[in-house]
Design goal:
The chain has a single domain, classed as Rossmann fold. Helices cover 40% and strands 16% of the residues. The protein has an eight-stranded mixed sheet with strand order 1-2-4-3-5-6-7-8. The longest helix is centred in the last third of the chain and has 15 residues. About 2% of the residues have low confidence.
Amino acid sequence: MMEGANAREYVVNGVRLHVAEAGEGPLVVLCHGWPELAFSWRHQVPALAAAGYQVAAPDLRGFGRSDAPGDVGAYTVLHLVGDVVGLVHALGAREAVVVGHDWGATIAWSCALLRPDLFRAVAALGVPFRPRAPAAPVRALAAAGRGRFYWVYFQEPGVAEAEFERDVDDTLRRVLGGLGASDRPRGPDEVLTLPEGGGFLDMLRRPERLPGWLGEAELAAMVEAFRRTGFRGGLNYYRNIDRNWELTAAWEGAAVRQPALFVAGARDPVILAPFGRQALEAMPARVPGLRRTVLVEGAGHWIQQERPGEVNAALLDFLAGLGGTS
């Protein structure tokens, strides 16, 4: 558990969520990404609590000490948004600001889109708002000959699990070290498309040493968690991408109108890739409430861990501009 936070558990939608909590005041919910945990918010939780906010950072379903349903279909965007909604209610709040990174950003955008009555503002890290695609995304990638894109690779249950669980320490060293800022810019295909005959980890070289923002003890805490749980829960998020497309037809063309903040590392492969860059450029039109976009020079994908000072400053400035809650 992170310093300055209390560990509590809540059962929402039949799933037990393990939550790090701190502070009092307007509620801010922090949603982590893949392959991460609530622990990835260890720099934000105490800073937000000290600034006068109630902060809740759950291990999302399928991760860490939260429940991991066995059914692939239990990880749709409606389940994930439902968990955040349930957590807000369990905490006794009438509204909240939702913040997310990576998959957590997708959840945060979806919370704002599906429940504007409950989520008064949204901050997303790393993944811009992406409107519903014209066709089912994974099937479209395969049809376009992009079967080596990592979303496609993650679809077959057991394949990526076997690769990642063979050596969890090596997996997290490569993923966390290889998708962060490096000594050179990375081309989008270099980190998002698997080499022929290789796996996901073959895209990422093992760093000779951990990046400065990640200590051995911090890595060990994450390795211990994923050795215990495996990677299937988080991979099931990807296995619902096309199902999510089907389930969200009613929100075709909908926009996020609440106040919004976007923060990313300038070297994040997600925004360097064509689909990410296009989403970033289109975001002001798709998110009318977008107040600020912050691109942190020299930073990679794990932005809230790599550059906590810049991220905390952007979040606190954004939250201060919202005022209090009723």
